[in-house]
Amino acid sequence: MAGGFCWWGWHLLGEGARLEPGVVLPLAVLGLGGVLLRERNLGPHLGVSVSSVVLAAAVALVGPVGAALVGMFAYLCDVRQQRLRTRLFNAAMAAAIGAVGGVVYLLLADGLATDVELDRPLLDAGLPLAVAHGAMTLLNAVSIGLMANAVRGSHVLTVAGEALRTLGWGTLTHLVVGFLFVVLWVGPDLGALSALFVLGPLVVAHWSIGREALARREHQETVTTFVAALEEADPVSVGHSARVADLADRMAGILDLGGQQAEDLRYAALLHDIGLVAVRPELPTDVEPDDIAYLSAISGHPEAGVAVLKGMDFLTGALPAIAHHHERFDGRGYPAGLEGETIPLAARIIAVADAYDALTTDGAGTPVPREEALAEIRSRAGTQFDPQVVDALAEVLSRAGAQPVVEEAAADPHAPEQVRAAGPDARAARPRWDHDHPSVSDTFAEWQPDPGVRVP
What is the DSSP letter of 1? Predict the structure, then answer.
């Protein structure tokens, strides 16, 4: 494919067919630099692929043959360890994408950007480059689909569509930066020096986003470790934190929580019960839910969780929700007896998600259908729960339709296995009820009606 389009592009150039080493070589070096700078698993971001920008600019500056050489050189000289067939495939695809983009550009433009006057940069170079870049992006997605089909038998169009969605707005960013690169290269006649003004800031952004992504991965690993420690201490709770976090995420969208607030909520939902690891030695077993010793000990787990996590900067915004996820809207909860909207919104969301999961999964009781669980939670709107958050739960359930909202613990293949691994007394070594069950909250409220006062 690359060879065919290079031949076509070479004939389109006619008498102007040539390769300028002073243009091709700097672009090839910049393309290689972009490939080496690339980092995996950065998550959603805009415009961090230097190699994509260089290849986009190359189709306008050096045409199909030059762009093919730039793409092929960058991936052939990639020093990272990889299989030979992977290296050759990447190099061939980069060459083909560059060649196709170059031909499309020449079909719409009067010639290479280095050979014509860009009196109207947007029309003379911008529009042809936009169409060429669109063709390049489409070819890239289809190629990924074809490879997935060859290796795993996946549906080509399905994989290609997913690839396009993954690229998202980033591909538009590559186009815009590539166009600016071309204009600066040709207009003020800066040549390769234009990379300092266009690619320099892009490299800095790439580095910054890469560091941020690395920090996020480390944060996620830390949270995962804490959750694993909690589930190791109480195998019956396996999956509970993840289910509560998933449901809290969905309610957050309905309640217009986004950005940092949504991230803090997710961390808090995943870690809301981490304090149980600290207070578990104090919890009596084989007692009734109104046992004062049990109620007193269990009411200390939110503050214990805050003590465990305090000092981790990335969790600072999650601590208030962890501390107050067992407060009640009527002020009869713990540990501080907060009331109404003085309770952090994230804590009010987790309280509802926590209770719903306790009602619908096999934690330490008999699970009930979702309709019955919702009715139970609705009956507590204004007393135990924030009515607005209860409405958000109802909206989540209505949107989910017949599909499960969260993975039920009873259906989780890992939970029973971990319980068996912990020994036959795994369930007997804990109370016969779930402390998140609304009835236990009522028992606590009746035992200690005065807000903010807890028996030591």
Answer: -
Domains along the chain with CATH numbers = 2-212 (1.10.1760.20), 234-447 (1.10.3210.10)
Q: Which residue has the tokens 């135990």?
A: 384
b/e map 170-179, b = 16+ CB within 10 Å: bbebbbbbbb
CA distance 405 to 247: 7
Listed in sequence order, the residues at least 6 apart from 257 whose beta carbon sits closer than 8 Å to its beta carbon are 265, 345, 346, 349
Assigned token pair, 436 = 């998140």
**Tokens encoding 140:** 């890239």
CB 148 within 8 A of CB 159: yes
pLDDT in tens, 128-149: 999 998 898 888 888 888 887 7
What is the separation of C-alpha 40 from the centre of its chain, rounded to a whole number of angstroms?
Answer: 13
Residues facing 148 on adjacent strands: none
Residue 385: φ, ψ to 5°: -120, 155
Closest C-alpha among 110, 106, 115, 170 to residue 137: 170
The pair of three-digit structure tokens given for residue 345, joined into one six-digit string = 């919104």
Tell me the pLDDT tens digit for each residue of 368-411. 898 999 999 999 999 999 999 999 999 999 887 644 455 444 33
